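Lab notebook, bench 4. The sequencing result for the construct came back, and we need a structural model before the next group meeting so we can plan mutations. Quick request posted to the team channel:

Model the 3D structure of this chain.
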Amino acid sequence: MYLPKIKQVIDEMQQVVVGQEKLLNRLLVGLFTGGHLLLEGMPGLAKTLMVNTLTKILQLDFRRIQFTPDLLPADLIGTMIYKPKLGDYEVKKGPIFANIILADEVNRSPAKVQSALLEAMQEKQVTIGDITYQLDTPFLVLATQNPVEQEGTYPLPEAQLDRFMMKIFVDYLSKEEELQVMRRMANMDFKHQTKALLTKEDVQLVREAINNVNISESLERYIVELVFATRRPLEYNLREESKYIQYGVSPRGTIKLNLAAKALAYFDGRDYVLPEDIKEIAPDVFNHRLMLNYEAEADGITSRMVIDSILRKVAINR
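Done. Here's the predicted structure in C-alpha cell form:
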C-alpha cells in the first residue's frame, strides 16, 4: 500500500509550502483520480510553488502557461513549422505536452484558446495538422482564476466549467502561517533540496488502489440523492433553496464525487467510504456545477450556502 509514501509526499511538501493543507489534499485527489482542478484565489498564495514542488517530488514534467488576450491555440498545443532545408513541415509541440499544467488566469484568453485546453483535458490528446498525439499519463490541468479583476476576461461557459473535477477557493493564510512564511522566505539563503519520492508508475498504482476502495450501495444512492436534490429541490422539501437554483449538478458531478470520496477514504487509510468523506468533498465537486439565478446574487446567496443546506437536509437513507 502506498499510503506511507503519500504521507511522506505531504511532509515533504510542507517543508517548502506553509499552510494550504486543503489545497494540497485536493491537488493529490485530482492527481490520483485523473480530475482537473479550477483554483480561485488572489495572487501570491503559493499555487505555483506548490505545484512545482509536487512535480519534483513525483518526478513529473511541469509547465506553467500564462494565459493572455493575445494567446493563440498554437501557442498552447503546438504547430507545424516549415523547414526549407528539408522541404517539409516539422511538428513543434507546445507546452501542453507535460504531466501537470498550471494554466494561470485561464479566463484571460479568448474562447478558442480555452477550447483547445479543454479539448486536451477531455480527450487526453492533441491534433496538430493531420497527426493526433496522445498526451502523457498522468495528465493534470490546474487552472487559476483571479476573483477580483474581471475586466477584459472571458468567463468559462458552464459546459467547460463542468470539465473540471473540483473548484477550490484558495484563501489567505492565518497570522501564524504568514509569520512563518515571512521568516522562511525573507531569508535569501533559504533552499530546500526536494526529494523524489514517487514515479509515474507509482501514481498509476495509487490510482488502481483508489479504484478498489469500496463504497456501499446506500452511499452510492446517497450521492445520487444529493445530485437530484440540486435538480429537483422541491421534491426534497428544499423550498427556500429552490428559489435560487437555476441549474443543478450534471452527471459528471455524480461520477467525480464518487471518485473523490474514494480518494479521501484511501488517504485516511481506509478501504471503504464513509458518509463524512462524501460530505467533506461534495462542496468542492458541486460549487461550479450548481448554477444560481440573479435572485440569489441579489440576496447574497452563494452556491456554497445552498450546498451546505442540501447536505444538512438530505438524509442518507432517504
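The mean pLDDT is 88.
Will bring this to the meeting.
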